[in-house]
Design goal:
The complex is a heterodimer of chains A (104) and B (173). Chain A has 104 residues and is an all-alpha fold. Chain A has a single domain (6-91), classed as Orthogonal Bundle (Helix Hairpins), CATH 1.10.287.3510. Chain A has helices spanning 6-26, 30-54, 61-91. Chain A is elongated. With 173 residues, chain B is mostly helical. Among the domains of chain B are: 1-83, NADH-ubiquinone/plastoquinone oxidoreductase chain 6, subunit NuoJ (Four Helix Bundle (Hemerythrin (Met), subunit A), Up-down Bundle); 131-165, no CATH class. Chain B contains 6 helices and no strands. Chain B has helices at 4-25, 29-49, 53-78, 90-114, 127-134, 143-164. In chain B, helix 1 runs antiparallel to helix 2 (29-49) and helix 2 (29-49) packs antiparallel against helix 3 (53-78). The longest helix of chain B has 26 residues, at 53-78. The chains are: A mainly alpha (104), B mainly alpha (173). At the A-B interface, helix 1, helix 2 and helix 3 of A face helix 1, helix 2, helix 3, helix 4 and helix 5 of B.
C-alpha cells in the first residue's frame, strides 16, 4: 500500500536534525539558536511518528511522546523568550558573545 | 513509476528540507523566522501524509499558531528586523559544516546498514483511542505524564511572567 520505505523518512528527519545542528553551531543570535532548536525537536518528532507507524502500528507510545515533546517545546520557547527579552533589557543585545556577566 | 503517494512524500520532504536550510542560513532574521514557519507547515503536511490528522492539527495550532508567532514577537521586541545579520566567521562556518557533514554521514550509514523493515500492519490512530489511552491510569495509560505536563505548563507560565516582568526601583519615586 505504501511504497515509501521507512529509511527515506528517517533520511528526512536526520537531514533536518543536522540542519538544526548547523544553525545552532553557526549562529550567535539567541532567537536564531532557538529556531534551530525548534527544527531539531521537530526532526525528532518525525522520527517518533515514523517508528510508531511503521514498526509498532498496534501501539501509540511514539504518538504520545510527540504530543508531550510539543507541549514541552511550547513551554521551553515561552521561557526562552522571557529570558531573551530580559537579557535584551539589560545588555541591549541578544548575541551570546555579549552575555559575559557570569563568565569566570 | 512512482505512485502519487510517494510523489507527495518526496515533494513535502524537499519543501521541509529546503525551508529548513534557508531558515538557518538566511541573513535577515525575520525571513529566517518565516522560513521556519514554512518548514513547520511542511512537517504538518508530513503528518497528514502519515494519516495522523490529529497530530498535524496539533502541530499547526501549537507550532505555527503559537511558537512561531512568539518568535516573531520577540524579533520585533529585540531586533531591527530588516537589518542584515553578520554571517559566521569563515573558520566557524567551515568547522560546523564539517561536523554536520560527518555526523550526517555517520548517522545515515548506521540507519542504512540497519535497514528497518516495516511490518505492513495497519496503523489506527483514531481520536477515541488516543483520548482513552491518554487518560487511562493502568499500565498503558498516560494520565500521570498528562497531569505533570499541566503542572509544567502552569509553572512555565508563572516563571515567564516573573522573568519578563519589569522591576521598578523603589528609590526612583
Amino acid at each position: 500500500m505504501n511504497q515509501v520505505p521507512l529509511s527515506h523518512i528517517l533520511f528526512v528527519s536526520t537531514a533536518l536534525f543536522f540542519i538544526g545542528i548547523y544553525g545552532l553551531f553557526s549562529r550567535r543570535n539567541l532567537v536564531c539558536m532557538l529556531m534551530a532548536v525548534e527544527l531539531i525537536l521537530n526532526s525528532v518528532n518525525i522520527n517518533f511518528v515514523a517508528f510508531n507507524k511503521y514498526l509498532y502500528p498496534d501501539r501509540l507510545d511514539g504518538f504520545f511522546f510527540v504530543v508531550f515533546i510539543i507541549t514541552i517545546a511550547a513551554a521551553e520557547a515561552a521561557v526562552a523568550i522571557a529570558i531573551i527579552i530580559n537579557l535584551y533589557r539589560n545588555h541591549r543585545s541578544i548575541d551570546v558573545e555579549d552575555a559575559t556577566n557570569m563568565k569566570f | 513509476m512512482m505512485s502519487a503517494n510517494a510523489v507527495i512524500f518526496y515533494m513535502l520532504s524537499v519543501f521541509v528540507l529546503s525551508a529548513g536550510i534557508l531558515s538557518v542560513t538566511s541573513r535577515k532574521i525575520f525571513r529566517s523566522a518565516i522560513w521556519l514557519l514554512f518548514s513547520l507547515m511542511g512537517i504538518a503536511g508530513l503528518y497528514f501524509w502519515m494519516e495522523l490528522d490529529f497530530l498535524a492539527a496539533v502541530q499547526i495550532a501549537v507550532y505555527v499558531g503559537g511558537i512561531v508567532v512568539l518568535i516573531i514577537f520577540s524579533i520585533f521586541l529585540t531586533e531591527q528586523s530588516g537589518r542584515e545579520m553578520q554571517g559566521p566567521p569563515l573558520a566557524r562556518n567551515i568547522f560546523s559544516l564539517l561536523a554536520v557533514a560527518f555526523g550526517f554521514v555517520l548517522t545515515w550509514l548506521l540507519i542504512y546498514r540497519y535497514g528497518f523493515h516495516a511490518g505492513g500492519r495497519k496503523f489506527d490512530p483514531g481520536v477515541g483511542r488516543i483520548g482513552s489511552q491518554m487518560l487511562a491510569t493502568d499500565g498503558q495509560g498516560y494520565a500521570l505524564p498528562f497531569e505533570l505536563a499541566s503542572v509544567l505548563l502552569l509553572s512555565a507560565m508563572i516563571g515567564c511572567i516573573v522573568i519578563a516582568m519589569k522591576t521598578t526601583k523603589k528609590s526612583d519615586a
